[in-house]
Design goal:
The protein has 89 residues and is of the alpha+beta class. It contains two helices and five strands.
Length: 89
């Protein structure tokens, strides 16, 4: 269940680990030493999240995470988060 995101920092899409481990696709707008500014695609109003909740985007990984979340498969979702590429640093 390995989910590898794209390694380039120029990648704008990210996966955010939201409440109850819900995977949410957002757009990376900027960062500070400990936080990342993200927003919905097309939006300019950002929210600031800790870097450990923001992961590089992988279409395959996101689809697997959404399916596990929507089916209530918390064990599979935990494994997907665990084996995902490390949060953005």
């Amino acid at each position: 269940m390995n989910c590898q995101g794209q390694k380039s920092k120029s990648v704008r899409k990210v996966i955010v680990r939201a409440y109850d481990d819900e995977p949410v696709q957002l757009v990376w707008l900027g960062e500070s030493p400990t936080r990342v500014e993200v927003a919905r695609d097309g939006e300019t109003e950002a929210i600031s999240l800790p870097k450990d909740l923001v992961y590089p985007f992988s279409k395959t990984c996101f689809k697997k995470m959404r399916a596990a979340y929507e089916h209530g498969d918390k064990a599979a979702l935990r494994q997907l988060w665990l084996h995902s590429r490390q949060p953005i640093t």
